[in-house]
Amino acid sequence: MEYLPLEQGLMSYHELEVLQRQLNKAINAEDSSGEVLEIGAWKGQSTLALAKYSKVITIDPFVEGTFNDFTRNVNASTYKENVELYKMTSDEYFSSHSPKLKFAFIDGSHVHPHPYKDIRNVWGRLNANGIMVVDDVNLPDVMKGIENNGLKDIMSVDWERMKLGILAKATH
Ligand SMILES: C[S@@+](CC[C@H](N)C(=O)[O-])C[C@H]1O[C@@H](n2cnc3c(N)ncnc32)[C@H](O)[C@@H]1O
């Protein structure tokens, strides 16, 4: 099965394909050093879409009680060996870890100041060809996080089809 059923995730299949395309760009870039990181796993659909192509570090305190669904879905997947979970908030994670990154998907708390902090923590750790994808850029606090990091001008969004913002370090 290419993706988990839609009710196990919050993204459309089109968005998952876009996410995978951006990940593969980062994997095949001249500088492909560093890790692949996700903030916000929920039931694991986006996590497993990334894990098909790479080891992925995913961070989630499971505030919505989806830990058991996440665990069941990951354990049933062919790609489970590629998933490394940190069951904590992104602030807790970055207070004790500082990985270099090639790719990150930000889809954790959508309430200010969390998007701002997640974007800042990720952007500073991306390699020269790194790519950051931010979900729900239609939400005011997420857009504020992009703007307050000075990144709005380099973000590309296909507003008609989705709400994923794509930000590539090389264009900055
Ligand atoms: C929109 S859902 C993620 C959906 C998932 N990416 C998908 O597409 O299936 C948001 C997730 O962020 C998590 N979350 C909430 N606050 C967080 C925080 N401070 N740090 C990391 N994750 C957080 C929630 O527990 C929830 O599972």
First-last Cα distance? 37 Å
CATH superfamily: Vaccinia Virus protein VP39
Given the C-alpha coordinates, what overall shape results?
Answer: globular
Given helix and strand content, the structural type is alpha/beta
- Output the strand order for the largest sheet: 3-2-1-4-5-6
How much of the sequence is in beta strands?
15-25%
Q: Per CATH, what is the topology?
A: Rossmann fold
Largest sheet descriptor: 6 strands, mixed
Helix content: 25-40%
Can you tell me the CATH class? Alpha Beta
- SSE arrangement, N to C: HEHEHEHEHEHE
Mean pLDDT level: 95
CATH architectural category: 3-Layer(aba) Sandwich
Over all CA atoms, what is the radius of gyration? 15 Å
Question: What this model shows, in words?
Answer:
The structure is a single chain. With 172 residues, this protein is of the alpha/beta class. It has a single domain, classed as Rossmann fold (3-Layer(aba) Sandwich), CATH 3.40.50.150. It is 33% helix and 19% strand. The chain contains 6 helices and 6 strands, in the order αβαβαβαβαβαβ. The protein has helices spanning 13-27, 45-51, 67-75, 90-96, 114-123, 140-148, and strands spanning 35-39, 56-59, 83-86, 101-106, 126-134, 165-168. It has a 6-stranded mixed sheet, with helices on both faces. Helix 5 links the parallel strand 4 and strand 5. The longest helix has 15 residues, at 13-27. It is globular. Bound molecules: S-adenosylmethionine. Residues 9-11, 39-43, 45-46, 59-64, 66, 89-90, 107-109, 114 line the site of S-adenosylmethionine.
Give keywords.
Rossmann fold; globular; 19% strand; 6 helices; 172 residues; 6-stranded mixed beta sheet; binds S-adenosylmethionine; single chain; alpha/beta
